From TrEMBL:
UniProt protein name: EAL domain-containing protein
EAL domain: residues covered: 24-281
Domain of life: Bacteria
Portion of the full sequence shown: 386 to 671 of 671
Length: 286
């Protein structure tokens, strides 16, 4: 009996593993053609003033809809795309859409900023600066309003420190700023914030610290400390994952300036985002 139970367990386990590996490799194979098949789209999530919910900027987030697999979650396909290398083309697609959108909104929303997410492989491309420079020549922006969101992985786990330093300098010359994403969840966060402080414009506090901020004294103490640190370093703070008014009120009391989350808006398609901007603007001028 034990033997047959063990056997069926083994069979089940191996079938599951087989399925998931098969599934992953199928997903990986489909990623290569996802862009040219127009399966990748870019969504835009408002970043707002915590104080008065005014629209200040947006984060660009990619979405993948595949006819066979349906909607695939970003946390699943981004990791696979990093393994296959397709992430570089995906992120350049998102970057291009973002710069085009910012460019087209220049006169309507002159101060709006937009952010894109980058991973270590994006920084490892030797033509990154040339690509960005061409893009910004084609779609000029009158101010520095493009930001690249990075986690500590990009700053720490890159081949050479001087390599990343050179890239950050070149980005800065192009008027591109850096935001630290998912702050507080990685390693050595403080040392790299100090080291690269001249390039960093914003720190995005991960939603895990925002979720229970109203009731959990430890969370509010940590967020308070991050805000004070950022002030001292002349950086802005964005709180991620704000879902309730109570969270927004607490963050406002702590002096947090920027927020992002379902309370104000989920990530929107370009059409819906433009409608959102129009509604906001007509309210502001009404
Ligand atoms: P992230 O950069 O930290 O993006 C924020 C995530 O939080 C997004 O998930 C967003 O939809 C979600 N979010 C925003 N507000 C709320 C809220 O109030 N409640 C909850 N529960 N979630 C909220 P998404 O779009 O699924 O993306 C997940 C992660 O995938 C991103 O985390 C980012 O690391 C990565 N990612 C997404 N798009 C791209 C991309 O174009 N390039 C790269 N390299 N990574 C991307
Ligand atoms: Mg991000
Ligand atoms: Mg984040
Ligand atoms: Mg996150």
């Amino acid at each position: 009996e034990a033997k047959s139970a063990g056997k069926s367990q083994y069979k089940q386990f191996s079938a599951e593993m087989f399925d998931s590996l098969m599934f992953k490799s199928k997903l990986k194979n489909s990623l290569g053609s996802a862009i040219q098949n127009q399966e990748i789209s870019v969504y835009f999530q408002p970043i707002f003033s915590i104080d008065n919910t005014e629209l200040l900027g947006f984060e660009s987030l990619c979405r993948w809809y595949n006819p066979e697999f349906g909607h695939v979650r970003p946390d699943i396909f981004i990791a696979l795309a990093e393994e296959t290398g397709d992430i570089v083309n995906i992120d350049r697609f998102v970057l291009t859409q973002t710069v085009q959108l910012l460019h087209s909104l220049e006169s309507y929303c002159p101060n709006l900023f937009g952010t894109v997410n980058f991973c270590p492989l994006d920084f490892a491309q030797t033509d990154l600066i040339a690509f960005l420079s061409r893009l910004l020549t084609k779609y000029p922006l009158t101010q520095t309003k493009l930001e690249i969101e990075v986690t500590e992985r990009s700053l720490l786990h890159n081949d050479s420190e001087s390599g990343i330093q050179t890239i950050l300098n070149a980005l800065s010359k192009l008027g591109v700023k850096i935001s630290i994403d998912d702050f507080g969840t990685g390693y050595s966060a403080l040392s790299y914030v100090k080291h690269y402080r001249q390039y960093i414009s914003k720190i995005k506090i991960d939603s895990v610290f925002i979720r229970d901020i109203v009731a959990d004294k430890a969370d509010s103490a940590l967020v308070n400390a991050i805000i004070k640190m950022a002030e001292g370093l002349e950086m802005k703070v964005v709180a991620e994952g704000i879902e309730t008014h109570a969270q927004r009120t607490t963050l406002n009391q702590l002096g947090c300036e920027y927020g992002q989350g379902y309370l104000i808006s989920k990530p929107l398609s370009q059409d819906d985002f433009l409608t959102y901007i129009n509604t906001k603007n007509s309210r502001a001028t009404a």
